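Re-run with default settings, no changes from the original entry. Doing this only to confirm the output is reproducible before filing.
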Amino acid sequence: MNPAATFPIPAIMPAPLREPFVHKRLVFQSLLCSWPSMALLGMGRPAQASMWVVGCVLLMMLWHLNQKNRLALFTVLVGCVPALIILRGQVFPYNTPMALYGLAMLFAITDKTLFSRIWNTELTRYFVLFVTVYWLICAMYNLDYSSNLKSMDLVLSSMSLFLLSTRRSYLQTAMLGIALTEIALGLGMLPQSQRLGMIEVTGEETGGSTHIGNPILVGLPSAMMILWGICGKGQWLGLRGNPILRYTIMVAGGALLFLSTSRGAMFAGLAALTIVFFLDRGSRKDFAMAFILGFVLLSYGVTTEKGEYALRYITKLTDENKTLAQRTTGRLEQWVAIPAVFVDSPIWGHGPGQGRQISQKYCGRLLAWHNLYLHFIAETGLLGLVPVLVFLGAVFRKTVSYWRVHGDPMPLAAIMGFLVTGMSVNCLDMTCGLWLGVAMTAIKPVGYFVPRVYEVREQPPVAPRSLEEAEA
């Protein structure tokens, strides 16, 4: 090698940014909206609980609207999602959470940067347009605007997290708000709920008897709490340096997931955590600690009345005294019937928004399709199923690329959790939108490392020490 040759210094070198921080003020605002509301729910006053959380969230949104802080507005709203969903339909119209999200989204898209983040990204534009057109077709076909309107819940929820990912500090704050609100929700519903997430409130307050909630509305966020606490040592919650709060959230998430008896949420969490276990070596110590804490907690939990009921319900799948149809709560009939449903109309399906009627015709039960993929096969045939699979496949590929570049398996674990959840519910709701939203942060990531550019300089020639060295 000629010693007089020049050696350029690399032009781009990765330089770590300051660790994103949690906006404590916004966390406090989320807790101010959700915790008193959940206390009222625990006292059997769902109407007052709904008025508190909706009123407080609206006031906080108006404050941030006046301050023109769009991401702070989304942070508080997303942080209160578990409380808003469980109380929807109490006092205020059922679609009040969607209206709040719609108001926030209208405010967000007035900012050119946030609007271009959604519209100029091919996958998100495709997703928003496809779901919006699907809902409009359902509404026109059935002459009912509410037909599959919950599909817009999925869009608004997931796009909110996608927008928050432009600033990791706001995203972390929102996810921490979700976890703390979920803990309040569990504590509020625990005294009067056998299956956590579903309660029956009686008395003058409700004018009789009222059923509130669904176990999977507690189960899915609880599974996310465990995932967020373990992956990256809690970096997605902004708790990398706070192990006490991080383990508290993980233990609480495990307890709430168990008491919810939601097997779909358990399988989704298991799939996501399996991805993290194999792809994030640094988290394996946390897995060991979580396993020990979970074993101790489960050993105590099954000795209580609620724990015994939860264990008995979860193990219903192996109960020989029940039929397979009873064990799967109607899902088996839908799997058995779907070949006939597909053969009768493979291309167009049997009509958008007609899922319940199709189930009644082929399964004998007026029941929504408890499966994302069967739902689109029944309603829209291949014409609807293929675009859904193409989109999910594209998001999956993006999450794999994100993991390879950044070494962070969280988006990949999230899309895996969403895909598994789609095997037990149709996923057209805000809770599933949280899973999909975390996965979609990999589409246009804002990472923890940025390229830092250095000036390219050439080293001066080095004079040879001897004649032989110069000839070489």
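The longest helix spans residues 372-406. The CA atoms of residues 246 and 274 lie 19 Å apart.
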